[in-house]
Amino acid sequence: MSGIWGDSSRVASLLVLISVLIVASSPRRVLCQGEDEYSKSGNPAVLPVVTSLIYNQIRNLTKIFNKEITSTLGFCTQNVDHDLNGAFEFESNLDFLSNCVKETKDVTKRICTAAEMKFYFSSFMNTNADADAQILKLNRNCNLTSWVPGCEPGWACSVPETQQADLKNVKEFPDRVYDSQPCCAGFFCPRGLTCMIPCPLGSYCPRAQLNQATGVCEPYAYQLPPGSTTHSCGGADVWAGVGGSDEIFCSAGSYCPSTIQMIQCSRGHYCRLGSTEETACFKLSTCNPNSNTQNLHAYGFMLIGALSLVLIVFYNCSDQVLTTRYERMAKSRERAIKSARETAQARERWQVAKEAARKGAIGLQKQLSRTFSRNKGDAPVPSKPLTGVHNAKKEAGNLTKMVQSLDSDLDSQSGFDMAIGDRHVKKQVPKAKQLHTKSQIFKYAYGQLEKEKAMEQMQQNLTFSGVISMATETDVKTRPTIELAFKDLTITLRNKHKHLMRRVTGKILPGRISAVMGPSGAGKTTFLSAVAGKIRGCHISGSILINGKPDSIHCYKKIVGFVPQDDIVHGNLTVEENLRFSARCRLSAHMPKADKVLVVERVIEALGLQAIRDSLVGTVEKRGISGGQRKRVNVGLEMVMEPSLLILDEPTSGLDSSSSNLLIRALKREALEGVNICMVLHQPSYTLYQMFDDLILLAKGGLTVYHGSVKKVEEYFGSFGIHVPDRVNPPDHFIDILEGIVKPCAGVTAEQLPVRWMLHNGYSVPPDMLHYCDEIASASKGGSSSSVQESPEPSTPGSEWKDEQEPSIKFLKIHDLSNRQTPGFMRQYRYFLGRICKQRLREAQLQAADFLILLLAGACLGTLSKTKGDTFGYYGYMYSVIAVSLLCKIAAIRSFSTDKLHYRRESDAGMSTLAYFLSKDTVDLFNVLIKPLVFLSMFYSFSNPRSTFPENYIVLLCLVYCVTGIGYVFAIAFQPAQAQLWCVLLPVVLTLIANQDKGDKYGRILRNYCYPTWALEAFLIANAQRFSGVWLITRCASLNELGYDVHRWLICLLNLILSGIGFRVMSYYSLLKFGKK
């Protein structure tokens, strides 16, 4: 019998299950029948089915709220279904629901409907504060007239037995005031509602226990209602943000696989606050039992070690690359030497063959009869002036040129040279008698002897310098000549009407060296700046002609060299590297590489820089070559580009006499190739003074006292009684007179000298200086007028065109008239890139200091800003944005602020500004990639946020790229001190704006355009998306308060990148606009 009864009971249970499944098409009816069946029979076989049906009803509620949650809470939910499932996916463990079914028998009548849930969460979102979420508005069941026991926290009521609660009803509350019972474990019953809501995953919601000492229902924070002796503690009472109420959150160091079970974390694992499972620690991290985080310090140090190793290897490899490059440069020099030697020898063989052929054709007897014939029938032919033979006795190369000219035309009757620009050439023509005494016989014989000696010496000593001399001496280079003429050149300060120069007229001719001298305040540098087109802030009137045309000097900037007074040389490059870079970028792109090497070597030899060619020039902080050597390198930067016009501002200042002689001799050789050289000098020695061809002597106020040949200056001043005493350097004596130190002869004053020059050349005299004319006239009546009238007119280049009418100076549209095609953008970009890489490698200590500061900042900020759940690490990220912005901007300032003078010089010389800027930015991309890694290696290992390392790196990478562009703008647009001040203030100010309350109308507008807002939003979104389950309300509350949106992560990154690009465009414009000022 017992077996039959057992079988019948199993059959009855099976029938109940089948009946429940048959009517599954009507969930409400099945649910009620299932609960009733279980409440009557208590059959445990029915319980799983009933629990599953109830869970399905709860799960369906999320679909009801899907559209409304998307519209109202879309800013904090990336995927609504995924987030809700992460909070209410209980399918793996429904023990809490089964226990509640056993305990209450009518769970469906106690679970909140859709309307009640909407009421609770809407009240929570409208409070804007976690603490106020415990207080709900009055409703149908809990109001001032009806406050049943179920309205107390942790308790719930049921609907009448004759009614059923429609869980999908989103409009009306059911009449739920009956049978008040404590809230089931795994549910929470808010104060002010009489229903139960399932606790989300990651929470721990057991039945509360009364603490007799405090009267608090633990682990929650509510107390029993006063005066209710039969009332006991219920279940959980609130689910809110962790900042307002964290009682239901699973404790840190433990994990909760279900909402009614909490397990301590085991060794080797860590459990954060609100965890549903324990997370295994990394191998090298330390995780004790009950750990809430893992110690990643070892990985941070490992990353730093690996990064340091990579940088050291890169530095050493780059050093090896530089060594290899030096070897290649040496080989290129050897190839150039070989080519030059072969070229020189071939030229000599060809010259010998040509001479032999000519002698064989004409015959030696005919040559001698023609050369030594003194028949009277041979009429003498007037000789022609030969350019550049004046210094034949001093320069062997010049003599060789003369000999070559005689060899090519033996019938030539050319004589010795006349001064270039001398107007009295006819007076210096030799007479017939002089032609016999200075005949071609002695010149040819002397030239042949000199030639044989020179050839013998060259053949015996074909050294490196000898080969260079042969290659450059036998090859007569032709450069495009530039003749610079100016008339009535007047320079006045704007808004002050102060003359810096007045009525300066003259010419600077090619193939000659012109020296500009005068006392302090005479406008010497101003004159050179005006001629070179570099003067600014002044009003310029008059005319400047280039080769007889009113073209701008900038049209010829590719063949115009300007040596500034200051030694603007890259101190972290060697002497040869400085010269080679200038030659690469400024010589013709079609010139062979070997020829460029020869040009550099010729300049190094001419300036006496062979011994220091591989030495660093040096800076203020790091000692390099001497000041005199640095000055010669400064001049060499312009000589290697083979200019047609070379302007030098005090090139001999700071040099000793031997160095000055060496420099002037090198410039003299440049002048022999047709280069127009003009320089400012202070108190040159007599030896140097004799090397110059022309002298421009200026008085105070920019007035011309003399402009002509050096040979005629003493004769000119002597015409009105000013004679140079014995053993006195002529320029020193003239300058002392202009300074007022030495008084001139009687009847002559220093103020009269500019007027005497004007009258001497027929120039117009300014009205305010006419009284000096009266003084001169009165002095002439006293007996000195004859000397003034009879004084020989000096060879004044400007006097030949004094009556011509020329247009005034204008800002003409610049066209390239230099007829030289320099390397294009890509080649210059490659040259700049190589140079900057060398400079950065030699600044490795400075880079290491930047990385060390970033390491310390990351460690400090990571330690002080542990990631908290209520802020998602907001303050730690905020401090990180400020620190990284400050450090990276200051480092970016160094890229441009230290090279401003170098950029101005190179840009004025015609080098590409875009290539310069992009090469700087390209090299800085290395820091943009490395610095986020350096900072995060410490910050991430100490703060240990929930967002992944790649996510933090990407955000920090975009931030560094953005702030680097801002640093460029500050470095270019401001002075270094001002730029550093802006770099400190801007991150702080913008971060304060980014933290403005979203209710502030104007603050909200400004914060949307601040880069700290984008960076902070990207950091918090990446971190907040890792908080799910019980953290859902906390996430929405924090993002709602900050005004952030989880869908804007990519937009924030894009804003940072576009801002970085925009700031770089702005900095490039600033470089073009302000870089040359």
Automatic annotation (TrEMBL):
Main location: membrane
UniProt cross-references to PROSITE patterns, sorted A to Z: ABC_TRANSPORTER_1, ABC_TRANSPORTER_2
Any Pfam family the entry gives: ABC_tran
InterPro entries named among the record's database cross-references: AAA+_ATPase, ABC_transporter-like_ATP-bd, ABC_transporter-like_CS, ABCG_dom, ABCG_transporters
Disordered as annotated region, ranges: 781-805
GO cellular component, one term: membrane
SMART domains reported for this sequence: AAA
Keywords annotated in UniProt: ATP-binding, Membrane, Nucleotide-binding, Signal, Transmembrane, Transmembrane helix, Transport
Ranges of biased composition (kind: Low complexity): 781-793
Positions of transmembrane segments: 848-865, 877-896, 953-971, 977-994, 1046-1071
Ranges for domain ABC transporter: 484-726
PANTHER family in alphabetical order: ABC TRANSPORTER G FAMILY MEMBER 28 (PTHR48041), WHITE-BROWN COMPLEX HOMOLOG PROTEIN 30 (PTHR48041:SF45)
Similarity field: Belongs to the ABC transporter superfamily. ABCG family. Eye pigment precursor importer (TC 3.A.1.204) subfamily.
Protein name: ABC transporter
Organism of derivation: Salvia miltiorrhiza (Chinese sage)
Gene giving rise to this polypeptide: ABCG13
